[in-house]
Amino acid sequence: MREPLPRSTGSTSTGPGRDPWWDNARFVSATLIVVLHTVGSIMDRHDALHAFHVAAWPFRVPAFVVLAGVFSSAGPLGPRRLRTLLSSIVLPALIFSLLFSLETKALGGPLDLHVTQLPWTLWFLMSLFCWRLLLPLVVQLRHPLLVTTAVALGVGYVEEFGLQFSASRTLVYLPLFYFGWRLGQGMLRDWFASRWSLPAAVAGVLGSITAAAVWHRDVQGPWLSMRHAYRADTPLGMEGAWLVRLAVLAAAAGLVLCLLRLVPRRRLPLVSALGAGGFTVYLLHPLVILPLREKGLIARADTPVELAALVAFGVLLTAALASPWVRRLVRPLTRPSATWLLAPAGTPAPAQAPPSPAPAATPVPAGRTP
Fold first, then answer.
1. Residues with Cβ within 8 Å of residue 81, at least 6 apart in sequence
2. Which of 1, 23, 94, 128 is disulfide-compatible with 275, CB 3.0–4.6 A?
């Protein structure tokens, strides 16, 4: 069995216990997510931004899904892991959903409380919670990648799987999450170490950029969003819609491998330290971008200089939100204490009362038949 790839300890520190490779990759993906969310409301007006959106898509959400799989465990879901899931995923999702609702209300919108359909980027936390619950079951399958891929392709024909509880995205991205877990277990280790894979990774990224520059307007939004069932207006119709999704998922997996191969494995000044704050960036950046978008400040950008300034703003925003002092400041929100909600660790489950003993049989006097 191959040795697993080195992984960080999961701490928010930047000490020797962390592998800078993964932090570097997280910073790249987080930066692309923030930049595209910054310019997302105006990208349809500008071909360069739209092509950038299509070319960089595999390095954003798919890369985050794969990296989440790398740092997940397929072990039994014991009490300690379940408590961690509640405190590190469920509570932050609810807290930031409430903050998003309050900010929307402050900006003049309605006060909607989101429970089954979390707003904006928070769908990822709901899916992450489900992926970590499902992983111990998935690894028990004879062919996990084949089965999860078949489910991802087939769910597009079921209308009931949509935005509620992030059901569609959870199942569609499940193969990439499992793929990430396999990478963390040492699969494709030779790809990351061999010399020939480096030019192949460069060719993959350049191919993505070239294809996006030529055909970005032909790529339909639902192909990349994974939020809804298939539509009949795809080039292959409903019968061949699964082939489009298969091609998109396969391209995403391949390009994530290219990204990881190109990301330096050594510690980089500033980048490695900021990459440890990828989770904080993901949670906080919509709260900064939303008022800028709703007040029309982003929509005013039109010239190349203004668009470049928006992109630079996204990069700087990522760096600011990932900084250690911001992470410490918002830690009560991103890593809330759950002691008020959960029973103390080690508290035994209530014991069931033993069954009542059966009544003793009444002796039958001699000479009588019962």
1. 73, 75
2. 23
